[in-house]
Amino acid sequence: MNLSQIWAIVKKDVVSELRTKEMVVSMFLFVMLAMVIFNYAFGAEKNDLTPYAGGLLWTAFLFMSMLGLNRSFVHEKDEGCLDGLLLSPVDRSTILLGKMLGNLIFLIIVQVLAVPVFAVFFIEVNFLGRLGQFILSILLSDIGISAVGTLLATISINSKMRDMLLPIIFLPVSIPLVIAAVISTSGALAGAGSPDELQQISSAMKFLVAYDIIFLLVAYALYDFVVGE
């Protein structure tokens, strides 16, 4: 595994996105639209929505990630970049890690922009004391989404129905991850205090770590076959 080759793939994706800004802008606008809809949907209720904030947040992030994952491979396929990578003397696992890190960077960029806006709309408590837990839960979830999403986006991009196939195969696989992400994120935002709640959050965080490790290994093992099809 060559770190310079991985960095070259990541740099190519970042530079290409900086020139067009298509993917990040579309992902950010999607999240903002979802937040506006959520705000008006719950606007009639004056109750504190902090206990439900994790679910609202990951509903927006999940569909936003699918939009970004799909677009990240459309240009590669249509412009022949993927074929060029396959013909170059680069290990297939290097392509996986490069694309995965690129997708992870774009997810984090949009989330850094979106979370403060989300906090203004839906959070009525000060969770800065639990900011570390919140960031860790987001990061662990993003790693899993990037690993699974990069593998499945590579599968779907070779299909004629690529826009429809990715959600069909991505959502069932990602649901366990999203459930754990909602539990851990909601705990960080709401400040769970009872032993049962803390145990539930701890179990969710451990599940996120296990999920990331398993699907990183699965993606690494299968990517050579998947990208060559």
Notable characteristics:
single chain; 229 residues; mainly alpha; 84% helix; globular
Structure report:
The chain is mainly α and 229 residues long. It is 84% helix and 0% strand. The chain has one domain. The protein has helices at residues 3-20, 22-41, 53-78, 81-87, 92-122, 131-157, 162-190, 195-228. Helix 1 (3-20) crosses helix 5 (92-122), helix 2 runs antiparallel to helix 3 and helix 6 (131-157) packs parallel to helix 8 (195-228). The mean pLDDT is 83.
Task: Describe the structure in brief.
By secondary structure, this protein is an all-alpha fold. The protein contains 8 helices and no strands.
Overall domain count: 1
Mean pLDDT: 83
Query: How would you classify the quaternary structure?
Result: single chain
Overall geometry: globular
Strand content: under 5%
Structural class: mainly alpha
Low-confidence stretches: none
> If helices are DSSP runs of H or I spanning 4 or more residues, what is the number of helices?
8
What distance separates the N and C termini?
22 Å
Largest sheet: none
Helix content: over 70%
Radius of gyration (Å): 18 Å
Helices and strands, in order, run as HHHHHHHH
Number of strands: 0
List the SSEs and their pairings.
Layout: H1 3-20, H2 22-41, H3 53-78, H4 81-87, H5 92-122, H6 131-157, H7 162-190, H8 195-228
